[in-house]
Design a protein that fits this description.
The chain is built from 3 helices and no strands. It has helices at residues 9-18, 24-36, 53-68.
Length: 76
């Protein structure tokens, strides 16, 4: 079934700019699905406890990578 909706000119232009050969319906469905699958950063809080083995491995890798990184020279 087809439904008729009204959009502001701004909304229409934004949808039109991202549709890339797709129908407007396909673009709207993709945007809604993408929004539904989005997670908040707070969903990941506490995922690794400070004392866990996994967190210790990750932390060690981070510090090792930081030691390998070289600062670039900035000329003023």
């Amino acid at each position: 079934m087809v439904k008729v909706i009204s959009l502001s000119n701004e909304a229409y232009e934004k949808l039109k700019a991202i549709k890339n050969g797709k129908s407007f319906s396909e673009v709207v469905v993709e945007l809604v699905d993408c929004r539904k699958n989005k997670k908040n950063l707070s969903d990941f809080f506490g995922i690794w406890k400070e004392d866990s083995d996994e967190w210790g491995k990750i932390k060690k890798e981070i510090y090792e990578d930081r030691k390998k990184a070289k600062l670039r020279e900035v000329k003023f």
